[in-house]
Amino acid sequence: MQRKNFTEVAEFIFLGFSIFGNHQITLFVVFLSTYIFTLTGNIIVITVICIDRHLHTPMYFFLSMLSSSETVYTLVIIPRMLSGLIFYNQPISLGSCATQMFFFAILAANNCFLLTVMSYDRYVAICKPLRYTVLMNKGVCARLVCGSFGTGLVMAVLHVTAMFNLPFCGTVVEHFFCDIYPVMKLSCIDTTVNEIINYGVSSFVIIVPVVLVFISYILIISSILKIPSVEGRKKTFATCASHLTVVVVHYGCAAIAYLKPKSENAIEEDLLLSVTYTIITPLLNPVVYSLRNKEVKDALRRAVGRNSS
């Protein structure tokens, strides 16, 4: 089949949360409040890490990069989602949809690999402490961050190129943003090849980081168990607990969303899952790393103290 056999689709309309009827205003208030908290928290984390020299270490450099990525990630999706809760049936052009999907794919993959880089940093810090400053110098840190973003860029190009070479017949996206599978369902032709490509890309972006993180933490835990004092073991593991919490939730949601077998799930279930990895997961970053991190809280107090004096 050729594209000319189909009516050209110029724009899409998001189904969004219209299935929840009168509850959309309540959802708007909840999502807006969560978004403001997420945005504020991530900006505070980035600012404190930049201005406090005590936090100028590889671990906090990677954390600031993750916070920056999460901030842009939410900007790509949530403002339009909030607009859709108030102004119904807003159209989005194919070009805008492709742009949104492109940045979503870059940043989602970038976040996955940044979390892997952070686990490698913890491995070096705990298992090779005497060589830490050599193995994690500024050049290495910069290359790791660039490698994460570069990998995300390649994955995004593959996703979007494969997707927007398809002819589309449907116009209603059963989602609140241009995610891969809801848009793919609108194609006029068989999408088996695209599904294979997207499943392969998603598997690489999720499974490879998970395996690397798993190996890092096996080595970390084995090193921690060799520490003679109980107090020493608790203190050392505490430095990894925040990262491990974010890792479990982040990769868990991503795996369920993109690696589950294709099935006829209810739209409500898909929307709930999407809300988790687009709104709730980015919130974990400032909450877990700020509210539960003594060094960040101390740095924040020092910054507030300087401004008030």
Automatic annotation (TrEMBL):
Protein keywords: Cell membrane, G-protein coupled receptor, Membrane, Olfaction, Receptor, Sensory transduction, Transducer, Transmembrane, Transmembrane helix
Gene Ontology molecular-function annotations: G protein-coupled receptor activity; olfactory receptor activity
TM region(s), chain numbering: 25-51, 101-120, 140-164, 204-225, 237-259, 271-291
Subcellular location field: Cell membrane
Keyword flag Transmembrane: yes
Record-annotated G-protein coupled receptors family 1 profile domain positions: 41-289
Gene3D superfamilies documented for this protein: Rhodopsin 7-helix transmembrane proteins
GO cellular component: plasma membrane
Record membrane topology: Multi-pass membrane protein
Record Pfam families: 7tm_4
Record-linked InterPro entries: GPCR_Rhodpsn, GPCR_Rhodpsn_7TM, Olfact_rcpt
Signal peptide positions (record): none
Transcription regulation in keyword set: no
Function (record text): Putative odorant or sperm cell receptor.
Protein name: G-protein coupled receptors family 1 profile domain-containing protein
Organism: Ovis ammon polii
Source lineage: Eukaryota, Metazoa, Chordata, Craniata, Vertebrata
